[in-house]
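Q: Hi! First time asking for a complex rather than a single chain. Here are the components, and I think there are two in total. Is that enough to go on?
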Amino acid sequence: MPSARTCSPCLGNTKRETYYNNFSVQTSTELITFLGRLHPLIVHFPLSLLWVVFLLEVISWRQSSHQFKPAIHLMLWVVSISALLAVAFGLILSNQDDYTGSTVVWHQWSGIATLVLTALALLAFKADETKSYRALLLLSVFGVTFAGHYGAMLTHGDDYLSSAWNSEIAKDSTSVVPKIDIKKLQGDINVDQKEALAIEARSILTKHCTNCHGTKKVKGKLRLDELKYVLKGGENGDALIIGHPEKSDIIHRIKLPASHDDAMPTKGKRLTKAEIEVLETWIKQGAPWPNSPNTTRPLALPEEKEKDLAVANDLPTGPVPAAFQEGENALASPAVQLLNTNQVDELNIKVRTILAHNCYSCHNATKTKGKLRLDKKELLFKGGESGPILVAGYPEKSDIIHRVKLPEGHDDAMPTKGKRLTKEDIALLEFWIKQGAPWPTGPEKSLYRVATLEPRLPNLPSANAQAQKPIDLFVDQYFKKNKIAWKKPVDDATYIRRVYLDVQGLLPNPQAIQSFISDKRANKRELLVQSLLSDNSAYAQHWFSFWNDALRNDYSGTGYITGGRFGISKWLYGSLKNNKSYDQFVKELINPNKESEGFIKGIKWRGTINSSQSTEMQAAQNVAQVFLGLNLKCASCHDSFISDWKLDDAYAFANVFADQTLEIHKCDLPTGRMAGRGVLYNSLGKIKETPITADRLVQLADILVQKKNGRLYRTLVNRVWAQLMGRGIVEPVDVMDNEPWSQDLLDYLAYDFANNGSDMKRLMFQILTSKTYQLPTVGFKEVSMLTASNYVFKGMTKRRLTAEQFADAVSQSFFPLYSDSALAVKMLPADIKKDIPFARAALVKNDPFLTALGRPNRETVSTSRTSQANLLQALELTNGVKFNYTLNTGAKIWVAKYSSSDALVNALYRQALGRNPSSREMELAIRYLGKKPSIEGVQDFVWAITLLPEFQLII
Amino acid sequence: MATLAAMGMNSPMASLLAGSNNPIAQRAASADTVILLWMAGGMAHTETFDPKRYTPYEKGMEGNRVLSTFKSVPTKLDGIHFSEGLEGIGGVMDKGTLIRSYVAADLGHILHTRHQYNWHTCYEPPQTVAAPHMGAWIAKELGPKNPVIPAFIDIGQRFTVGEGEELKAFHSAGFLGNEFGPFFIPDPSQGLDSVRPPVGMNMKRFEGRNKLYNDLISKSPFGDFGSDYQKESLRRSMEQAYILLNSPESKAFNLSSEPKESYDIYNTGRFGLGCLLARRLTEQGARFISVTTEYEPFFGFDTHENGHTRMVGMKKQIDGPVSQLIKDLDKTGHLDRTLVIVASEFSRDMMVEGRPDQTVKEQVNQPEILNDMKFYGMHRHFTDGCSILMFGGGIKRGHVYGKTADERPCKTIENPVKIAGIHQTMYHALGIKADTQYEIEKRPFYTTPDGKGQVVKDVLIEA
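A: Yes, that's all I need. Here is the structure of the assembled complex.
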């Protein structure tokens, strides 16, 4: 018999009864109100008397006596009448006060059932139907107990009994709620402190307020069980003013003397001084809310109970995104689907990703349109100037859903800028809100993939018939996983053209092709690559362009005119020619000498410039981009919303390069805060404080090139791979946090590179002699397919000759496009003319011809070139002065050299395409040129040959 | 041969010709074409479209007394005067709007190319990503109007001049890609050379060469290697260049076919002929054309001495061609759909450099007392009050907007307009949405910084 649990609903109501008795009854409305409020008094009669009747009946039954019969008769009458009154008054009361939820429904119907049962019991008693009477009496006792229990829950709260009953849980729950020190929570507090404060505040509200201001009762139309309702206020207006406890009604009322009409709570204990202080601090700190809807008392609400609650909340149904359809905790309930912790995490990240991509740019710390921020949990739930943006559980009532669904162009439609949300995105947001907008506890997980910093040496897969060398072994493993078969390596002619262009940027001459093809040695490809790499000058002249783009070094450009820019060409040329180890190369750029300082000095424009473009910030951005494959550009203006990088990180890094400590500027406005110093990744080490910039740069250089900085070496090997294979293992090559198509291959190459003297030529040799490099090329119909998420590596991507490769190929196979006078001699090593076969395009100033073919203006770092042709380029090739002059001049020389078209065409095909013309091709040529070539004819013929895809592409 | 426009639209080249994936304006446009007439080097508002009290030169005069070095002359608009020498443009002011309250950006140290960069891209240099010229944005969003006329044509600027590199920095499509970059015609009288077969090649040979190219491709064993975007885009582009160079529209580039009397009105030099070329190309369906008086340090409007004398010449250069261009376009009805803008990177003053109350490094040396005629003129850079003219394409006729002070500093005192407002007004007229943007390095890059800048609705017929 659960007697202990049905006790004393009266205790809490004694005070109220007296209080109500003071009312003077003036009108019938007030009479009804008065009667309604008699319900809690009346209910005690049926409850206690039924138990007494039951007790007497048991005694009568045991003793087989009838001595209590008259008393029982009387009492049954009293029970029935008082039950009738209790039900009547109860119905009145429930219509007056704002009772909602299932508890009141249970209470009401069990009360009515009890009334019916007692009346029947009385009838049976009078008819002497003893068996029926006893059965009905028993049921009545159960009914009244049941009704009483629900009535008590309405008055005292769900866990009123259980918390007293289970002392262990009660103790635990208090110990889980942090005993926070309010004094420490003033001023700036961190996330953890905020969370602790939020939990404490919510516990207090739950303990004292939510019985009357919660899901079941909404007195004064105020709910205090969820932040959005707290902020919404009740019929008397705002319950609290964020940041201002002294102006907040809730604080005012809980501080009033108990006797005051407006004092709160009206029931139960008053709040302690400490509790009031917590709430005051909580309001002052912006009324943070705990990270999860269920963290108020984690131990008091075991999983079973959460389920009940979720069901009881009766959340609407709807389509469930596939990812969340199956889960360990999946309930058969049609109402909601419960998610496990991992699913909540995943859902939350997806939601935040949608918000980050579509909303953060206008609703963040920097720009806070409509006073709404979506980048922080508590601010998101707080809403903006138009109020809360969502109603947990009710997507259809949530403003955010309403707005993203509005047609574009509608005044309230969101986002106002950029793309609209996709249907899938909207469905996900709806699902999330339907789920009660869960937000995991603890530190927020990053929305962005962050690559591992440390180096890693993966286990080498075992050699087999298909693959023996490390690169091939990893690719073989990848191929097996992706069910790709190895294709036959390319033929000698294709291979030699590839490696010449990749190592030296030149075409192989016909003799070289012939002797390579007829070479019978098994290792002739390795020998060829070795000999090409050993031509230091040719190697340097080709790779010069790649590094000029990356280090945005040029012979002309903005800044030079006012001494605001310094070239590094001499240093760079020498470094490549000597195959300087990469760690040394990087060190000399970061901690530069006079010859290499141009890179970190940046480009200085005269006048006032945006603070995110100070030369120190340029250094930070460029070092991060080029050497670490990391975008600091957003974070140099404000906390990034495309990565986790913060404004302070970018400034701390820029400050390493600064002679005078930088003041942090947010969106070009001074913040009054000075930058710290740091190297982006704390685990790499710290810069010892010194006022001398050069000393800091020594340290920075050493810190960045450490072998444990795996990112530096991964970035480099990926860049070289992309140059040689047409696409990086990670793409884009400047976003090294993106997922590689083979982590093992990337890690292996980087580890091997760092541990073998960071020798760039050695790395190239490995790639160029791999079976992987020798696979046939893969063509893509659209350039976007290269960066698509479903990219699968099957071999080298088809490439087009760069501006320099094309110019040099024309120079080599026909007639020089540039004369020695075009060389930027002043910027280049003194003996450059002795070092070159002809005026190579990498060594001349940029011009309209090279620009049209894709040589970038090197104002900013550029690490890849487009190989897509366009109209302006075609026009330059069709009637551009430079190209036509070269074709015309060269034609005169060729005509003088070759008297027959036959010989000329053969020579041209061999020089330019590395093969003899087919008979059909020869036929076409002769038809155009005639037997004896003319200058015009040759000019046109060469033009056509150089524009053939066969000439333009690397296959 | 079928008409070229039709060919373009029906061939697989259409996408390339259109140049953009979203060629359809997203709101009703009042203009299809923009002609920017660029007064390079800083044109003083007080010596052109916003004259103040005239003080003739006397030896020993106080520089501070001089607000304008020219008399004022009436225009077609009641009560509105221009500086002497601009009677022609004054005569067409009933066809356009005069903005007297442009305020140039405050970039500290006054440097022409930085302000020009800012004017043409709406961004202040340097930038972490290469900012596109307004012409490139228009090319990207709207594509060519006539498929065989490049969407972005730049007439008159050479890059061999001082600060050429700084000029190149903004004469670019930036991150939008070369495809949307300017088609340069440095010398309008040589315009035809840009769109005809190479010098010395007749049409028959040009066609023969193209046929040879196509034949060689079809006979090449290379054709077996499958398709890829590099090869396809190369073939498409070459085909397109061939069509353009072979098109009847290319005749528009040939100024010698212009009737002599008309040619003579325009022929005040390269700028005047540039205006003529712009008119001819507009008639054939150009999208965006910039014609510049050409920036070269210390030349043109960049008057560091002899300001008055030099202005006489500059006015002669612009007055006839600009007014004739407006008249011609109006006569043929093209003005209704063509927005013509006359502007400069900033203004000038005799005494004030930059903003009033602000000293600027390296300002022009200008004596307080003028003992030499060469000091009589507007030699210092002034950013706080500049004039812009707009005609056609939905711009009000015979309207004046904004006002500058009548005493030094002659700065804007009513309705200031900044560069983002000018850009947004132009984009609005073209039907390009104010928040047009592309994602570059994962962040949005808007036509104007953060999509800001209010359309100057008061200058539009239908805002």
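A: Chain B has a mean pLDDT of 89. Let me know if you'd like any chain examined more closely.
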